[in-house]
Amino acid sequence: MTKRPTRVDYSKKALKYSRFYGGKVGIAPKVPVRSLDDFSIWYTPGVAAVSKAIQADHELSFEYTGRWNTIAVVTDGTRVLGLGNIGPEGALPVMEGKALIYNYLGGVNAIPLPVKVGSEEELIAFVRALEPSLGGVNLEDIESPKCFEVLDRLREEMSIPVWHDDQQGTAGVTLAALYNALELTGRKLRGSRIVLFGAGAANIAAERLLVKAGADPKDIIVLDSKGILHPEREDIDQLMLKNRWKYDIALRTNGDRLTGGLKDALDGADALVAAAGQGPDMVKPNEISAMNRRGIAFFLANPVPEMLPDAAHKAGAEIVATGRSDFPNQVNNSLLFPAIFRGALDVRAKTITDGMVIEAAKELAAFAREKGISSTYILPTMVQWEVFPRVAAKVGQAAVRDGVSRRKISPKESFDAALGMIEHSRKMMSTLRRSGAIVDPPE
Amino acid sequence: MTPQNRRKSGTHGAGVGMPLQIRHAKKEELAAVADLVVRTKRLNAEFDPLFAVVADAKSRAEKYVQATFEGSGRLLIVAVEGTKVLGFMRAEIRERTFYEPHTEGFISDFYILPEHRRKALGNEMLEQASSELKKMGAEIIVADVPSQNEIANRFYAKRGFRALTSLFGKAP
Predict the structure, then answer these.
(1) Which residues of chain A make contact with B39, given a CB cutoff of 8 A?
(2) Phi/psi of residue A364, each to 5°?
(3) Active site includes A394?
(4) Fold annotation for A333-435
(5) What CATH number has the domain bearing residue B91?
């Protein structure tokens, strides 16, 4: 039996291999170059005809170029992983990694693109200016509350999908996990008391998505570092001026007007979603014990969950999930974002609606149910890659249903397109490795 | 087995359906109004550090409200639902020594709890206060708000008020 690698092992390897490979992704050709004469087709003079066609009809850029399958992974480097504001250069290896996951699991051509910008407006203007080259944008690791304004504005102003994974991705996977945890404990979304601990990107997006999915906002309690949000909290006017997303949540949730801290919120609660910061003591046993029987508790902070699963079980929680791969029930964005963009790109979507994310969450949950859910298996795992084309197909169909797709294709066409693209990526990887074009790392 | 709920859902929103009143504040509402006074000042503090609120604001606010009850030519209007005070407006009659018209109704404080905003409550309170101030002798109505409070500025501008003076401030 081999020992499980530690975080230190991974860090050492990451440093060594990053230097060895000098980057994780690069642009690769899609067309043959049979002789130099082919450049007269791919480039000038032949290419001018393609340019003129697109000039006359910009939508043709989705047919004649790689735009339809290309996204940018954009960050300003202001909130990278748990490292904080490390700047765009520091963010580059993370964005490369994200691009690699997009490629391998979703067949998406993703370009890592950290940018140096001086203001929110500059970031918005930069991303907006990228539109002609892209089929979509993945925003990543942008600090809160800036990320809300940037996402809202870009979703409104661009006619390609803009996705902020720290908001929609985490919220989407959380919803999927919640569907199955509720199912296992005999509950429904509506009628369940759900506590969201932490009011950053993930939980602010989760609140909106939960309500769109049918949860009663009056039964949702949200806490930030100062305690339970409610309409008469002392700093409510400050929130109105400084963080209107949190302000809106304070006004529409918490129908019982609870005040106080986490224990007050969890008293009689059915589910907890903690996205509040590094554990393992952010959530205490007596707080979990205050929950209803058969309680559900998700601890999403990485690398140290707000509370360790063992402790949560001992305190009475029945179903526990974390963001970590070495515990059961990993709430992992990577289950969602490759499939979200695969599905959205296949139908040339103009945006990603909350309805598309809810469909994706439902399909993730359905996949796990088909395999047989239990308290230690509420979500598919990363090795079950068959889930990606299935989720992608649902996302594409939801886009068609919601009237935001440029292309109307059938469910079967959606699935086949997604499966084809994902299989192609996996085949590329095995072919490149077999041929020696990509070598294994040195020992 | 279904989970045992300690809390019943579907019982939210106590006070729903209670009649809404705009009327003079009562003595027993002093503490509630004082709390709203403090909120008003804290809101102002968001706009400028020269509006930083003192530590003992609550007790000062109680004295301030008490003095309003006791003084003459002063008006304290509240919006109330059941026994809950949702908002207040404080005003007083002031002489304008050198200007015509000579008497103004000066609105010094105006606050409504966030969830009761945007429901025309502010408008009703302003109208009621204006007509009372007129009866008290006011020939014009003026209101004092931080220059940077755009929401308040818009509120008054939309109702025909125009900026009359600018109060500039800096540390010496």
Answers:
(1) 234, 237
(2) -60, -45
(3) no
(4) Rossmann fold (3.40.50)
(5) 3.40.630.30
Class of domain A21-160: alpha beta
Residue A43 among the catalytic residues:
yes
Q: How many CA atoms lie within 13 A of A422 on its CB side?
A: 27
Shortest distance, CA B97 to any CA of chain A (angstroms): 36
The pLDDT profile of chain B, 172 residues, written as one tens digit per residue, is: 344 444 544 445 444 567 899 999 999 999 999 999 999 999 999 999 999 999 999 999 999 999 999 999 999 999 999 999 999 999 999 999 999 999 999 999 999 999 999 889 999 999 999 999 999 999 999 999 999 999 999 999 999 999 999 999 999 9
Q: What are phi and psi of A104, to 5 degrees?
A: -75, -40
Contacts of B87 in chain A (CB under 8 A): none
Best of B8, B9, B39 to disrupt the A interface (most A CBs within 10 Å) is B9
Distance between the two ends of chain A, CA-based, in angstroms? Answer: 20
Measured CA to CA, the distance from residue A63 to residue A59 in angstroms comes to 8
* CATH classification for the domain delimited by A168-322, as one of 3.30.70.250, 3.30.565.10, 3.50.50.60, 3.40.50.720: 3.40.50.720
Q: Considering its fold, how many domains does chain B have in total? A: 1
Residues in chain B, how many?
172
